[in-house]
Amino acid sequence: MIKINHIAIVVSDLEEAQNFWVQALGMPLQRVEQVESEAVKVAFLAAGEAEIELLQPTNEESGVARYLQKRGGGLHHVCLEVADITATLERLRAYEIELNNEMPRYNEQGRQYAFIHPRSTGGVLVELYQTNR
């Protein structure tokens, strides 16, 4: 079964963005983390079983910084949780889907993830996430 794990939104100022999402809208702020491997500072907001992630780049060379410079703030990617990321990537390759990551990567918590190129998804960057819950 596939379900939404999180929706990531790029922002230029994390604290300013929280004025809307946390203060005005009332979404619970779960935590804020620095993710060195992706060069972002992330605010995690509870949204039912999923999360909203507000991404602020921490340097000018990161992919998120380039995205912000080119497109401005807004929706960055949708993350789908899958039971078996390796099998999912194999299935996507069989359908000739363009992958940003041919093999899963690991985040700081040991979770596997991979990105699918927007050219294959109708313009949306899609992240796959295996959480082993």
Q: What is the compact description of this entry?
A:
By secondary structure, the protein is α+β, with helices and mostly antiparallel strands. The protein has helices at 14-24, 63-71, 85-94; strands at 3-10, 29-35, 40-47, 50-57, 74-81, 105-106, 112-116, 125-130.
Question: How would you sum up this structure, described in words?
Answer:
This protein has 133 residues and is an alpha+beta fold. The chain has a single domain, classed as 2,3-Dihydroxybiphenyl 1,2-Dioxygenase, domain 1 (Roll). Helices cover 23% and strands 39% of the residues. The protein has 3 helices and 8 strands; from the N terminus they run βαβββαβαβββ. It has an 8-stranded mixed sheet with strand order 2-3-4-1-5-8-7-6. The longest helix has 11 residues, at 14-24. The radius of gyration is 15 Å and the shape is globular. The two termini are 12 Å apart. The relative contact order is 0.19.
Q: Biggest sheet, strands in spatial order?
A: 2-3-4-1-5-8-7-6
Helix-strand pattern: EHEEEHEHEEE
The CATH architecture is: Roll
Overall helicity: 10-25%
Q: C-alpha Rg, in Å? A: 15 Å
What is the straight-line distance between the termini? Answer: 12 Å
Q: Main β-sheet, in a few words?
A: 8 strands, mixed
Number of domain modules: 1
Mean pLDDT, all residues: 94
CATH topology: 2,3-Dihydroxybiphenyl 1,2-Dioxygenase, domain 1
Beta strand count: 8
Query: Which shape, going by the Cα principal axes?
Result: globular
